[in-house]
Amino acid sequence: MPAHEFESDTTTDPLAHERAHLAASRAALRAMREDAQALDISDVTANWVNAAVLQAQIDERIKSLADLSHTPLFFGRLDYLHVVGAEEAEGAQGEQFYIGRRHVHDAVGDPMVIDWRAPVSQPFYRASRKDPLDVGRRRRFGYTGGDLTAYEDEHLTDPAEAEQTSKLLQAEIERPRVGPMRDIVATIQPEQDEIVRSELGGTVCVQGGPGTGKTAVGLHRVAYLLYAHRERLARTGTLVVGPNRSFLHYIEQVLPALGELEVKQATVEDLVGAQVEVRGTDEARAAVVKGDARMAEVLRRALRSHVTLPTQPVMVVRGSRRWRVPAYEIEEMVQELLARDMRYGAAHEALPQRIAHAVLVRMEEAGEAPDDRVQNAVARNPAVKAAVKAVWPAVEPAKLVLRLLADPEFLAAHAEGLLTEDEQKAILWVKPARSVKSAKWSAADAVLIDEASDLVARTHSLGHVVIDEAQDLSPMQYRAVGRRCSTGSATVLGDLAQGTTPWSTQNWEQALHHLGKADAVVEELTAGFRVPRDVIAYASRLLPVISPGLTAVESVRESPGSLSVREVAGADALDAAVIAACEEALTHEGSTGLIAADARVPALADALTAAGYPYLSPGQETTADSRLTLVPASLAKGLEYDYVVLDEPAAVVDGEPDERTGLRRLYVALTRAVSGLAVLHSAPLPRELG
């Protein structure tokens, strides 16, 4: 499939025709935006509330119709053999559709560009010579800075045309990375498209090694679901959960580039941190125990321990009459509520109504005719309120967790048979805090409080949640995220080999169980499109140790000379050698990431400054003038750079609490490069690298 470069702008030149269609499409998009801006809602809204809501919707519509000059409106074309949806007829003329990031129509409503998510666009990703899906020709377009410069054709039904690898597709995959993460809508592969277009009702877990596109697939699935189920998800909401703020900043432009502006992004800490301020940290041992799923049962027991069976009757006085509800009858109510395993807070609200109903029954038996207002009044009676406070008192989640972590006897009573004595000691505070505000809560503590909050009152559920780098979540964190999609679905993205927390996921079945999605479908992506073959093969030497049995990524990209491993004589010379490697990397187009053990970052920062090289921190956007980022190894996950300089692999391994976690951290660092990796070391390399 030869790529046709721009030659001459003549009327018979196909590329000139395509460029004219691009210009017309951009004009049509501008007209669509101007129409939205010109809408007058002054006479169609009943009140200011309706006007505000409608205006907000119009504003979002205007934003979604923005023409991004650096982003082509369409990247492909499908020439169907027959009219789509019509019965095949001999000699029937087929239809032609341009496939792009969003729908564009002309002044009379005829489509000029079809949204990539539409059913008619699906063959662009799925059609093959074996199954052409009624497509005679698939055309791909090449762009430079938003200008259409080339095209490439596949004649899927022509047996005389040899099958070849698309050069334009390869060029798009390898395009230099400057700025935030891009969408991959022009390069989605068939196995990725199947995941992207999977139904809303089901949860999908994607195991994907470095460079397989799992993050992009997850984001594009959100965009597809919003297209296919927009009304439903507009009501229930969507959320992307990432490992840290740097990562979220890196991916935040993908969905807006596809016209989707309503998806919220957060870290797990954002989700659970509303009730307390996180100011403390846990030792690894304590964090592992606090993140264990057994803590959910400890919390449930501790919360239920506040319920005590009544020993006194309730006497309600109304006017000159007294109504008595005996203790045994109230006990029956309490036992029934316990047996139903309701949320603690819901039961706390239900009990006074149960007691009031018992009083109303007695009133009716005495010939009175009470109504609902009387029942509500009885439920608010001081005697009833006092009885409920004694039997089923209100509990504040943060205070419950505070007591568990500060009171050894209280913890022991509710952790019996669940946590060992050593595990209990690991999570108890050495210096117990006096109050919720004075406590130095850790991130794991905030998750416990979130669990307790859900035991008291149900957490609001969203329609769909995407969890990226999910292998690093603890069981309790999975539960926290799962609560946010208990009535919805999820897309779980991760790589078991990149688990770098002490509590990282050992297998997806356990993780999905904790998430509350045990019936999820697990898909594995093994074809690599980002990391060069030599680089991923080098990093994969670690797999037998860090994740035995996991399938290694097979990169489709051959890039000779992409890997360089250099030993530097003496630690004193390492900084200078690293700076020289960065200088060499910056001679190439695209971004450069200098990745180092966290403890090495200050020294390298000083060395870069002394050498006159400005550098960015992870999450800061690279530009044409600022292309070097200094990356602590702990923040490298999920990021990618055209060229990576990796400083002292042994230091990356030694920076973790155990060797396996250190090797996993090294695996992450080794697989961030898109075009080239230079490894520099003065200490011996880990033996697993050979």
From TrEMBL:
Residues 187-541 form the UvrD-like helicase ATP-binding domain. It comes from the Bacteria. ATP binds at residues 208-215. The keyword ATP-binding applies. Signal peptide: none annotated. Keywords: ATP-binding, Helicase, Hydrolase, Nucleotide-binding. PANTHER family: DNA 3'-5' HELICASE, UVRD / RECB / PCRA DNA HELICASE FAMILY MEMBER. This is AAA family ATPase.
